[in-house]
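ENTRY TYPE: paired fold submission
RECORD: A
CONTENT: sequence, then structure tokens
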Amino acid sequence: MPRRRFKLPVISRLTWAWLLAGSATVLAGAVFFNAAFSNEGAARIALPVGLPEMMARPQEERLAPPPVPASGDVRREATQLAALAEGEETEDGLTLIYPGESTLYTEEEDFSADEVIITIPGANKPAASVQAASLTPAARAIPDPDPALLHSTPLGKIPRIAPDGRAALRYYAKPFDGDRSAPRISIIVGGLGLNTKVTEQAIDDLPPEVSLSFAPYAKNLEFWTEKARRAGHEVIIELPMEGYGANAQALGAAALLSSRTPEENLQRLDWLMSRFGGYFAATNYMGAKFSADEAAIAPVLRKLKDAGVAYIDDTGAAQRAGQSVGIQMASVTRMIPAAAGDGERDKVRRELRALEQTAEENGVAIGKTYAYAATIEEIAAWARSLDEKGIARAPASAHLRASAAAR
């Protein structure tokens, strides 16, 4: 009788396969553990930024559905503006973005390569700047949006004065805890929300006294503004307005234009004001032409006043309309250049020194700029030097209240 070849039973083959797979897993885990927890191994793991964002915000931001039926032009506007918020192309053929006259908002076209760095125990010591930041007392957070300070419109929820008299311009303003007898400087950094890296840099690196202004066309505004408020920054909403010699169409469908009727502009203002909550003031983006037209801007300022929202103007042209309406507002003292690179840092430093001089002469000064990495770095370093110069860092709302008291 011929010998039969010995074969492993099927169950044994499966068992061997599982044993081999398990051994490989254990070996890989040991290698990873050794690399992660030894000084010689990798100290950081890079993850796509989209992952923690998805965990923090499980639902993608959308324009809030109309709480009441919208008909006619309002329904059409709601559809168009909702598409605008998503960066889609509308029926008029415009790709709706939030550009300036430079490449301010096109620095970073692809955010997919952003990374969040997670430090593993056993890594090298953090840099001195990180250690110093960790020793800084946490700033007092700005309150979250209060439902009592909101009311519904066909285009979303917008601010209102609460039945008990509370208003956004006070409720969401950062308290000023500095020396009231010292010269005060306020800084506003605008154009935030459009570039994820620069937005995070501004929130994390700038002192909490710096007020942060967000572009209405940015995505994930609730996420970013909440992060800013938690870090102690008061926040502002930007209103795109018609400027001289500028392409009005490039400002998007929600732009406030002198060629539109007050009703058309106020409808767009409803959408702009509904983009996120928790802001104490609005400010212009561009807007020299619109601000100089009192008949055009007065209804906008009146609506902001009735909503309990302050206004900060950097054109110098809205003062008359503001006084006639009676809104609490302030005018920017100096515009600080938005430095696109290291070669423009000197311009930023010169304007910051000029702002100091204005504060020393007049007691208060307010500067405004737009978000670039180099500009933020310069402002952060400069702000740390103000204490030794006897100048107080103040949120923009403190300057606003000082202006209101002086009138």
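RECORD: B
CONTENT: sequence, then structure tokens
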Amino acid sequence: MDAPVTQEALRDLDALIVVSSPWADGASAAAQTMEWLAEHGRTGLLRRSVVVLNDSDGHADKRTRAVLTRQFVDRGQKVVEVPFDPHLRPGGVIDVRREMARPRGADFSRSRPRSPNISRRGPTARGTESPPDQGVAVRSSRRRA
């Protein structure tokens, strides 16, 4: 997080999505990210961040997920739980259009109402408008000098 390129990227973000596994080790790493943001004066970005608990293999314990969710919520974080889906395996290519057509595809849009800085349409990384339903984009209202 202290690398110059990371610092530059953080300055340009309006929102941050931190993906975590629903186990203590993954959630610990996500919590460390949140703590780092707070300790380095990025409290505005921290308030606009969303934690995604992604059950990537279907073995997450419901009680553990509930405890982790509560811990993040108690710290003021927005939390989205993504249930196991074999199409969202680690390292796999995600076809957002196909996933949105499936009932579980609604999980992609759950975070949008909770964070106004996250939209399904908006500027891409290069500042051009993305086509409709192209996926999730983080909007940046800042202009670079």
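NOTES ON RECORD B: The chain is about 40% helix and 15% strand. The chain has one domain: 4-138.
STATUS: closed
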